[in-house]
Write a structure and sequence with these properties.
- The complex is a heterodimer of chains A (128) and B (274).
- Chain A is α/β, with parallel strands linked by helices and 128 residues long.
- In chain A, 48% of the residues lie in helices and 20% in strands.
- Chain A contains five helices and five strands; from the N terminus they run E-H-E-H-E-H-E-H-E-H.
- Chain A has a five-stranded parallel β-sheet, with helices on both faces.
- Chain B has two domains: 181 residues, 3-Layer(aba) Sandwich (Rossmann fold), CATH 3.40.50.300; 82 residues, Histidine-containing Protein, Chain: A.
- Chain B contains eleven helices and eight strands.
- In chain B, helix 1 packs across helix 8, helix 4 packs antiparallel against helix 9 and helix 6 crosses helix 7.
- Chain B is globular and about 60 Å long.
- The mean pLDDT of chain B is 93.
- The chains are: A alpha/beta (128), B alpha/beta (274).
- The interface between A and B is small, with 13 and 9 residues.
């Protein structure tokens, strides 16, 4: 039986975490949510997450810096960016830093579920 | 899923590289073969669509209005095909209107001018000097066309992700380079880039539907909302808004239509002199 993949969800809007967490747990993921990027940054120093979903525009540590650090610490983690300020420039920049996908808000729950499922399939395929 | 757009200063070389690349990477080809179905759909001659892609508007040739309309039809048909599977596109001017989408890889192929010169000497029986003049005239004509049709100079290398000179690199080497670049994943899709492409497709459908009635119209899409900007006098504003909303609302995928009617200062000035 394959182990449950763990997901970190970082967004400074609590409603995003509140809606996404059950939607991802329903798919069998273990989900930790964070609304403070500083807290999330401390967490990734200690824990390797299989999948990280992060917002971009946040106070203190912004998403771009966060994802750079996350990929540096855990290169095998798949990072998914979700943002209400999507531009092709930030999408390309994120992609160059190694993100798995880049999604503009607002998005449907089914969209993010599909992307996370693909990320999980890639991780499992790589581990096989 | 990626899109490769091949542009060239020689239609034949562009076609050759596009076809070979598609075969090498297992992609479909989208090329001027689509003009027949597009012409049939809109009840116009295929030859007129080809003119729109080749000729600059002139008194005796294609009019600006017709070129604009026919290019809108071609754009709509092209974009709907680029939203699908892995595709190589050439011969449809897509390098000039598919802009800012990260999973689109744009390549410019520069034919060997000496080879073009030799081909012209052989085909037309002209002197090498005359052939060279014809080559340069052809380049100038294409540049004028792209500036007239899209306000962009298609010979500008900054429009492309890669420029390959066939005077330095063989066609097979060019194909290998393109295939290798695509295989590295630099131009793979993201959810956001797919969304951007679909929005361009939707905007092009609406524009194609409106352009005949509203030649100045500009359209962009944000999700399933289309934002239409047109010119008109104050007294026409409501009528224009209603007409545009009816036409645009009929397009599949459109859920909301916003219309901005910008004051047509030239017409207003002209009317004030009556």
């Amino acid at each position: 039986m394959s182990k449950r993949l763990n997901v970190m969800l970082l967004d400074d809007e609590p409603i995003v975490c509140k809606r996404l967490q059950p939607a991802l747990e329903k798919l069998g993921f273990e989900v930790d949510t964070f609304t403070q990027s500083v807290e999330a940054m401390h967490q990734i120093q200690q824990t390797a997450y299989d999948i990280i979903i992060t917002d971009l525009k946040m106070k203190e540590i912004d998403g771009m810096r966060f994802l750079e650090e996350a990929k540096k610490r855990h290169p095998q983690s798949e990072v998914i960016v979700i943002t209400g300020f999507a531009t092709m420039e930030t999408a390309k920049q994120s992609f160059q830093k190694g993100v798995f996908d880049f999604i503009a808000k607002p998005f449907k729950l089914s969209e993010i579920q599909e992307v996370v499922t693909r990320a999980a399939a890639k991780l499992r395929g790589g581990a096989a | 899923m990626s899109v490769i757009i091949v542009s060239s200063d020689s239609y034949e070389k562009g076609r050759q590289i596009a076809d070979k690349t598609a075969k090498a990477v297992g992609y479909k080809v989208v090329d001027p073969e689509i003009l027949g179905p597009v012409a049939a759909r809109y009840g116009i001659l295929e030859a007129n669509l080809r003119k729109a892609l080749e000729e600059t508007p002139s008194l005796l040739g294609i009019s600006s209005k017709s070129q604009s309309l026919y290019l809108a039809y071609i754009e709509e048909a092209t974009l709907s095909r680029l939203s699908g599977d892995n595709v190589v596109c050439h011969g449809l001017g897509a390098h000039l209107y598919v802009l800012g989408v990260s999973h689109v890889f744009k390549v410019r192929i520069l034919a060997d001018p000496q080879e073009l010169q030799r081909q012209l000497v052989s085909a037309k029986g002209v002197t090498p000097e005359k052939a060279l003049k014809l080559v340069k005239r052809g380049e100038s004509r294409r540049k004028q066309w792209s500036l007239s049709a899209y306000g962009k100079d298609e010979t500008d290398p900054s429009l492309y992700d890669m420029v390959i000179r066939l005077s330095e690199v063989s066609p097979d080497e060019a194909v290998r380079t393109i295939a290798e670049t695509i295989s590295q994943g630099r131009f793979k899709t993201m959810t956001y880039s797919v969304k951007c492409m679909k929005e361009k497709e939707l905007a092009s459908k609406v524009r194609a539907a409106l352009l005949d009635h509203f030649p100045e119209v500009r359209v962009r899409a944000d999700g399933s909302t289309v934002i239409v900007t047109t010119k008109g006098l104050k007294r026409e504003k409501r009528k224009r808004e209603e007409a545009i909303k009816i036409l645009a609302g009929k397009i599949q995928g459109v859920k909301q239509v916003e219309v901005n009617v910008v004051n047509d200062i030239f017409r207003q000035a002209a009317e004030s002199f009556r």
